[in-house]
Amino acid sequence: MRVRLKGINRSVKRPADGTIKTVWYAWRGGPRLQGEPGSPGFIASDNAAVAAKVAPVPGTLRSVLTAYQGSSNFTSLRESTRRDYTRLNARIEKRFASFPLVALTDPRTRGVFVTWRDELSTQSPKQANYTWSVLNVAVSWGLDRGLVPSFTKAGSLYSGTRVDHVWEPEDDERFLARAPERLRLPFLLAIWTGQRQGDLLCLPWSAYDGRDIRLQQSKIPVGGPRKAALDATPRIDPLILTNNGRAAFRHMWLRACKRAGIKGLRFHDLRSTAVRRLANAGCTVPEIVAITRHSLADANTILDAHDLHLDQQLSENAIGKLETRTNLTNRTTNRITRTSSGT
Fold first, then answer.
1. Res. 40 pLDDT band, cuts 50 70 90
2. Domain 169-305 maps to which CATH number in 1.10.3720.10, 1.10.443.10, 3.30.460.10, 2.60.120.10?
3. Concatenated DSSP letters for 69-100?
4. Is 239 helix (H, G, I), strand (E, B) or coil?
5. Is this structure's pTM higher than 0.90?
6. What is the DSSP letter of 165?
């Protein structure tokens, strides 16, 4: 008899050797399960994980983190953001799960959290800042609902931005010429849609109907090399990009960039590149964000960082539109004039 376990989370990984491996977890962000699905060992490890997942003690920081992850504020986030928040909440719980909420009123508490944040920054200032931001979001949510007595935020450690890092056409050519075939489709999808790596790696074949591809409730027409690459890709997995293990994909991408001589550019920089190229093509900011899903403010920030690159192209687009509009207006005026004069 087959036993159906609820809440099981699957992750398909492709290690550096190219093999496909499916890993199962008790729940999203939960412990890894042992054995094959349906086997006695698999069921036993799932039961053990569920038994260990006890309800958080009321009045502790973990109780607020758990409540936040069950709220509509959390569930309404993008799937990739929820994954990140779950991972970082687990990091926070590992250190402060039993931290009493009443201690948040003590002025010394700020020093405790900031010291912990500084410890994290020795490994990665960006990740330390992201973890700190997630803590602020969850505790601020609890503060608004009367679950937390008080909380004082601290400033960010990481303020770097990469909006001025973009791929040039010659970078595209070098990468596509030297990168393995399985990385061509991720590159083409990213450079034409400006989507995040995590969202593209989770994109299912059901989102592609042969003409359009659905991204975050928006349909984007697919043509040219993108359509050719999609249609040529065998559907051996529910996901379009079967290399959906983030660590393995990052490793392959970095290795391909090194082979192609691409320096100082990351996969994420393709998002800024897409914004710039759409603007150069004459797209308005609302049209751009409808595709890339940036906020209006972020899109404008990217364009501001590249104003010297955009001036000539955009000015040509603007003059072309003005000339088209002027010619149309002149033809309409001449037609009205001839009609009025009886000619």
1. confident
2. 1.10.443.10
3. HTSHHHHTS-HHHHHHHHHHHHHHHHHHTT-B
4. strand
5. no
6. -
